[in-house]
Each structure stands twice: as C-alpha cells, then as structure tokens.
UniProtKB/TrEMBL annotation, chains A, B:
The keyword Ribonucleoprotein belongs to this UniProt entry's keyword annotation: no
One Pfam short name: Acid_phosphat_B
Keyword DNA repair belongs to the record: no
Organism per entry: Rehmannia glutinosa
InterPro entries linked: Acid_phosphat_B-like (IPR005519), Acid_phosphatase_pln (IPR010028), APS1/VSP (IPR014403), HAD-like_sf (IPR036412), HAD_sf (IPR023214)
Family under the similarity heading: Belongs to the APS1/VSP family.
Keywords, sorted A to Z: Glycoprotein, Signal
UniProt name for this protein: Acid phosphatase
C-alpha cells in the first residue's frame, strides 16, 4: 500500500514537470507549491483582515502607511471583489436609512458627502503608489487632483442620486483646498454628480487644523444656518466624529490611508 | 498528449477511491470535493466578512440576529483564531495609548470598561445559542448571568491590570441590572478583576433607555464628579457614542449581537 501511495504521489506531481499546454488548472488539482504556501498565506490573510477591521472600527492611532506585510492583501482587496462588496453594502444601508427619514418640515434636511474615496475614487493614483504602501506625497497627489479625472464611486453616485431625489440638501465637505475648487467642480460634474447645495473646501484659515476639527466646525456652521444634518457619508472617521455629528453616519471602507 | 492528460486526470482522482488509511491530506492535493465547493465558500466568506466589517464600523441599523448564511462563519470566527487575534489587537492598541497618557494632575483620570463581551466572555452561553443565530432571550441569558461563571477575556484582563497600574481610575459601566450587582461582583473577582473605582449598573429608572442614552448619562455624571474620561473599552458602539465621549475609545469585536 505504501508503494502504491508513493507511485500516486509521483504521478500527481508529474503534471508540474510537463509543458504548460497540457496543464489545465481547471481540471487538475492546483500545483503543490500553492498548497505548501497556504498556511502562511492564511495567517497573513487573517492578520491583515484583523488590521483592516481595526482601521474600519477606528481602533488604530494615526498611521502613515499600511503594514508592509499587508501590501498584497490591500492591493487584492482594492482591486478584486472585497472593496466593491463593502462599498455596495454601506451605500445600500445608507439608502435604506435615507428612505426612512421623515422629510417634512422646512426643507433643510441635509446629507453630507466627503469627496475623495467617498464620491470620487483616487484608485488610479493609488494603484501607481502601492495602494498605501508609500507615504502620502501631497505634491504628487495634487498633480493627480489637477488632472480632474477621478472616476465616480458607482455605489456612492447611486446613493447620491437617491438622496437628492428624496429631497435632501446635499452638502459636499472636503479636505481639498479652496484653490482646487474649479477642477473639483469639473471632476464632480464629469463623474455624474449634480445639484449639490454647497461645496465646502478648506480655506487658508482651515489649514493646520485636523480634518476632525475643520469638519466639525463646518458642520456646526451648517447647523447654525438651519440645516438638519441627518446623514453623512465619508471614508475617514474624521469625516464623522467630533461636534455637530450627523444623526447617522456611514463609514465607507478605506484601508489605504488615514486622515486624523 | 491529450491521451496522457486523460491518464493523469484519472490517476490524480484515483486516490479518492482508495481506503482512507493511504490518503494523507498533508501529502496529496486535497480531495476534489473541497475544490468544487470553494467558489461558493469563498463567496460566503467574502459576504460575511463584509457584513462583520459593517458591524464593526457601525454601518448597520439595529439587527436582532446574525444573517442565516453567516452562522458557520460567525461560529468559526468566534471559536478559531479570528476573534482572539482581533481582541489582542484592540487591547494592544489600547495599552499603547494608555501608556502615552500624561497621568499627572488630580488623580481622577478614568478608563471605562463595559462588562459583557468586554471584561467577561459569554461565549459558553452563546455557543449553546447559535452564536447569534437565535434571537436574544433575556430570561435564558439572565439564568446564565446568575450562575456567575463567565470567564475573563484574557486580553482585556491584561489591559485592565496595566491601566490600573498606570494609575487610571477604573469605572465599570454595564447594561446589567442593579439586581445582578452581587453575582456580577463575584463573577468579576473570580475572573481576576480587582480594585475598580465604581461599578455602575442599570437602576430601575434606567430601564427603557437605550444603552447609548443610559451610558451617555452616566458618563456625564462622571464628568460632573470630576473624572476625566480618557479611555473607554466596549464591544458595542452604544458603549462609545453619545455625549461625554471618551478622548479615545476602543471597539472590541462582537459579531454575535447588537445593543442600540
């Protein structure tokens, strides 16, 4: 029996030594090299998922780049199904909530959207910069912003249109600089966004503030102007936490960078 | 070549037809049945991970039980490595933060801990109740609480001891009822917890309030008493959000149940 087993091991390995054209991965068991690597891959998968959950649950202190060992994991998450599924889920939940809101009143019920990684995707930029493995370079990123070619995040565009059609006032609140107003407007329009009530960007006196401070101040001003902030979508916790928080907030996934 | 390929396919499948004692899963490629099932399993894994991330990021509206299709996923997460790794990560992050706090001053710097699924684990109870697949039954759960045998969450016990030794005042703030004070104290002591400053339970006037309201009110009272709440650990967002929020909060994982 042991001899038979050895012959079978040899024969099951044999296809690996044959030319590629007769090796069909859909029919044959996968090459042994993958089997050997799996325990390590599973451990990395588990640790990097745990890291990503900690990011999404706001458990980490400010970080400047993703863990070295999670480079492949984050790339795969962003470019395969994971990111897309998570975006759909959170935007779908937001839509269910939006439809449940009583819209009667003074017509000043507002939904706030962040811009980068919320309405617009900078994935083409981050694909060229290691999906978060490189420390953020504002000069290079500004060059990307100034092209004005960031595509829409489709799930957000769908939510945006629904929220508008329900009668929410849409406020765009972004950490982008006031000097990028014009290109940001062009990019948003080109990506399909329309009819926002306000687009708020960082003015010169907002530089130096954390995003949490800046966005809290702007939300407080909106409340003073009479807006009722009932929904808020952002990919950073600094879009959500602080003062004058929205009745409900939706944290879009983003394992590539952290803004305090 | 095609004939050779067919022979190799046959021989690679042959081990499946042989008695178990000559089939060594560590040496042979895994049985084909697992390969066939993988795409479905991977899809469930992906969807349930996405659901769990949405729970941890506070993106879901109140839910009463876990999705039916995630029953096996949540059981595996709780009983295999996932839960343990996530607990270690969040408690480790909390420890790093705790050590960074400037402890000088009036000696009233406080760390709040929730009890269930934060200091004490009810996993033995939930193992008997489908890990969240069953709707919460307060009568049965109370019977479990009254045994007083919930074990410590080891990562939390380690953090608890460190936080105490750093000089934080430890406040335990739980949704458990005042009538369970005595058994809760016994259980906490038996699990290794010591020297808390206060144990706050729901009194009769707190029943009917959401956990967010009840815990916010209690935090506000603590602030009025002069405590500076600089750390907060809980497995529910209702432990964390609301008024008088802690300077930093740590969301422990819990995919089994949701408390609004």
């Amino acid at each position: 029996m042991i001899f038979l087993k050895k012959i079978l091991i040899f024969l099951s390995i044999l296809p690996l030594a044959l030319p590629q054209d007769i090796f069909d991965p859909d029919t044959f068991p996968r090459p042994l090299i993958i089997e050997i690597n799996e325990p390590h891959l599973k451990e990395v998968q588990l640790q990097c998922t745990s890291w990503r959950v900690a990011v999404e649950a706001n458990n980490l202190s400010p970080w400047k780049k993703i863990p070295e060992e999670c480079g492949d994991y984050v790339r795969d998450y962003m470019t395969q199904k994971g990111y897309e599924i998570d975006l759909q889920r959170v935007c779908n939940e937001a839509g269910i909530y939006a439809r449940s809101v009583n819209m009667s009143g003074d017509g000043k019920i507002a939904w706030i959207f962040d811009v980068d990684e919320t309405l617009l995707s900078n994935l083409p930029y981050y694909a060229d910069h290691g999906y978060g493995l490189e420390i953020f370079d504002s000069t290079k990123f500004d060059q990307w912003v100034e092209i004005g070619m960031a595509p829409a995040i489709e799930s957000s565009l769908k939510l945006y249109e629904e929220v508008l059609s329900l009668g929410f006032k849409v406020i765009l609140l972004t950490g982008r600089s006031e000097r990028h107003r014009s290109i940001t407007v062009d990019n948003l329009l080109q990506a399909g966004y329309r009819n926002w009530d306000k687009l708020i960007l960082r003015s010169s006196e907002d530089h130096g503030k954390t995003a949490t401070m800046y966005k809290s101040e702007k939300r407080s001003e909106l409340v003073e102007e009479g807006y009722h902030i009932l929904g808020n979508s952002g990919d950073q916790w600094s879009d959500i936490l602080g003062s004058s928080m929205s009745k409900r907030s939706f944290k879009l996934p983003n394992p590539m960078y952290y803004i305090p």
